[in-house]
Amino acid sequence: MDTLHTLITEEEIQSRIRSLAEEISKDYEGKDLHMVGVLKGAFMFLADLVRAMRIPTTIYFMQASSYGNRQSSSGEVMVRHDLVLADKHVLVVEDILDTGLTMNKIMDDLSLQTPSSLKLCALLDKTEGRKVQVPAQYVGFHIPNKFVIGYGMDYAEQYRDLPYIAYLEP
Ligand code: IMP
Ligand code: MG
Known about the structure:
The chain is an alpha/beta fold. Helix content is 23%, strand content 32%. The chain has helices at residues 10-27, 43-52, 101-111, and strands at 3-8, 33-39, 57-65, 78-80, 89-97, 117-125, 138-142, 148-149, 165-169. The strands form 2 sheets. It has a 6-stranded mixed sheet, with helices on both faces. Strands 1-9-8 form a 3-stranded antiparallel sheet. Helix 1 packs across helix 2 (43-52). The longest helix is centred in the first third of the chain and has 18 residues, at 10-27. The chain starts with a strand and ends with a strand.
């Protein structure tokens, strides 16, 4: 049986999202912003983030998977999308940066489409886990190197529905 320990409460998440949305709205004022959520982990974050924004946005999704049911990155990343991003201002929205391998692959892939600008917003950053450097212009929270679930993030497809973020202890 797994025990859940709350790491970030629903109130803390929502409050941080309001400031991120304010910052992003200011930075992209007067521009058409195209937000790309990385499925499935970022679905909840993207939904809350766009509702807190002051500027209109266009929303897309893409898929990236590397994990399977294990708690560590396999390093093999599969990217799937049908995006057309040439000359667009693109902000990729991700749940969590760990090794950076997933985001590195995604950013490489999307930059081939020559967007006008390409930036990254990650809700969580496990800085200690980094194997490749990926610049993230917007980060919600820096967290310790623990496996977390909830608020879109899963362990073997469980716990995505929780409104808060917790870590698992066996
Ligand atoms: P990276 O390639 O190691 O940076 O891993 C990034 C991806 O792995 C994220 O987009 C998540 O989908 C998943 N991931 C990394 N750490 C966790 C975690 O603690 N809980 C749930 N998913 C995670
Ligand atoms: Mg992810």
